[in-house]
């Protein structure tokens, strides 16, 4: 049994005439008769009652027709879906840090959709911190993620796409609140609200303090930068965080770090050994073209 035989069977069931069916299928009538005979022999049942020039389905033929039509519909839908994918259409599963959802990711997604407006493309957006994002990438939950870079991730390709300055934030009534710049050593006497181990920023800020050869006084460890900012605003400590517009709406003083200077880099991450569908490949190239760091 093959796909041609099934399609011949459906066409004959529709026309109820071997000659008309053969004409529609653009094959010789004997070839159609042979194909139907082979199908009946394999199934072990008679599918058509042949009367004069017409052919009508038997009871078994009607039953088999319902199965074949459903199967061919599923197959045709699958073929159509693959054709759309091959043309660069489909859904992109995108994971990213919440802070990148303010401008970078919406701008990139919208720009790509505008450039590919003749194609049917959808995005699914997910936010998390770096470590779970990268694990989701490995588990193939996401097609790509935008996050900070972690060391020893040999299976992941990291491409820089954006930068963000690190700043010190303190409560408005803090002794450092009258400063515009600060040396990191001046923050050591005060309790810090610090990034937790699972955050991609932890190693970045650890290295910042390594440059001055000191360790901060860590009072709290939190994964989310926005939560850290909220705690600082309520007087739980001071913190080194990436600059973000939300800080302007909180009751904190933003202070530039004069030494040591450090900026946070964001990366587009994809699996090195994973096949990327055409739509994901095109979006990856779009990001590379529009995000030159």
Automatic annotation (TrEMBL):
Please provide the record's keywords in A-Z order. Answer: DNA-binding, Transcription, Transcription regulation
Q: Name one GO molecular function term.
A: transcription cis-regulatory region binding
The record ties this protein, via InterPro entries, to: LysR_HTH_N, LysR_subst-bd, WH-like_DNA-bd_sf, WH_DNA-bd_sf
Tell me which residues make up the HTH lysR-type domain: 1-58
Q: Does the keyword Signal apply?
A: no
For this chain, the family text in UniProt reads: Belongs to the LysR transcriptional regulatory family.
The name this protein carries in UniProt is: LysR family transcriptional regulator
């Amino acid at each position: 049994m093959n796909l041609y035989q099934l399609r011949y069977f459906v066409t004959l069931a529709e026309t109820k005439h071997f000659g008309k069916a053969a004409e529609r299928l653009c094959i010789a009538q004997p070839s159609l008769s042979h194909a139907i005979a082979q199908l009946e022999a394999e199934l072990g049942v008679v599918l058509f009652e042949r009367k004069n020039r017409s052919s009508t389905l038997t009871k078994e033929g009607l039953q088999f027709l319902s199965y074949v039509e459903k199967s061919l519909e599923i197959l045709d839908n699958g073929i159509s879906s693959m054709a759309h994918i091959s043309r660069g259409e489909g859904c992109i599963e995108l994971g990213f840090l919440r802070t990148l959802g303010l401008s970078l990711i919406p701008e990139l997604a919208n720009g790509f959709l505008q450039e590919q407006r003749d194609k049917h493309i959808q995005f699914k957006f997910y936010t998390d911190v770096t470590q779970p994002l990268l694990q989701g990438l490995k588990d193939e939950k996401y097609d790509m993620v935008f996050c900070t870079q972690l060391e020893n991730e040999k299976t992941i390709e990291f491409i820089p796409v954006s930068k963000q300055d690190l700043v010190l934030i303190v409560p408005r009534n803090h002794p450092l609140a009258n400063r515009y710049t600060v040396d990191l050593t001046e923050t050591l006497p005060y309790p810090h609200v610090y990034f937790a181990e699972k955050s991609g920023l932890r190693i970045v800020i650890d290295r910042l303090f390594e440059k001055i050869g000191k360790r901060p006084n860590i009072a709290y460890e939190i994964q989310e930068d926005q939560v850290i900012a909220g705690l600082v605003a309520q007087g739980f400590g001071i913190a080194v965080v990436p600059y973000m517009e939300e800080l302007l709406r909180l009751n904190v003083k933003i202070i530039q770090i004069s030494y040591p200077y450090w900026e946070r880099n964001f990366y587009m991450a994809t699996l090195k050994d994973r096949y990327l569908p055409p739509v994901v490949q095109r979006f990856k190239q779009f990001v590379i073209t529009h995000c030159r760091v």
